[in-house]
Amino acid sequence: MNTPAKGRRLIDRYLSQVERALAHHDPDERREILDGLRAHIYDELTNRTPSGSPSMDEVRAVLSGMDAPQSYRQQDEIEASIRVGRSRWLGRLGFYFFLGALGLFALSLVLGATISDALLRGGLMLSGMLGVCALGLGIAGWRDQFGKAAVIGALIALVAAVVMMPTHRVTSGPASPPPIVEAQTQPTGP
Hints:
The protein is an all-alpha fold. The protein has 2 domains: 5-66, no CATH class; 83-172. It has 6 helices and no strands. It has helices at residues 5-21, 27-48, 56-65, 69-110, 117-140, 145-172. Helix 1 (5-21) runs parallel beside helix 4.
C-alpha cells in the first residue's frame, strides 16, 4: 500500500500513543498488540481504497474509527479491578469456610459424648473438607486480608486436626469388652 508520508506519521503517532498506554505490558505482548493494530489499520485502508493510495481523509477516517489510545489503559484498569474484586470475594468466602469448619469441628468435639460415633466422624470429616476448601479459596484470594486469614487459620486447624486425630482415636476409641474370666469352681466335699 502506498500511504502518504503524512498518513504514515498519523498512524505512527496513534500507535505510539497506544504503546505508551500499554507501557505496563510485557514487551512481547505489547509488540503483538501493536502489530495487530497496524495490520488492522492497513486492512481498513486497503478495503476503503482498492487502488492502493489512500488519501489523508481516509487515513483520518480509519483512525477516528479506532478506539482512543487511552481506552487500552482503561480496559486494563477495569480488568485489574475485576481481578481485585474476585480476589476479595474468594478470600472472604475462604474465610467463611474456615469459620464454618472451625465451628463444625468445635461442635463435633463438644457433642462428641452425646452423639453416635458415626456422626462424630462425619462431622470431623466434613470439618476437614471445609478446612481444605477454605485453604484453597484463601490461596485463590491471597491478595485480600480475609484470604490470608483463611489460609493461616485453615493451615493451623488442619495441622491441629492431623495431630489430634491419633490422640482422639486412642483416648476415645471403642471400649474393649471386659475380659472373660473363667469361673473357677472349688470341688465340694468327697
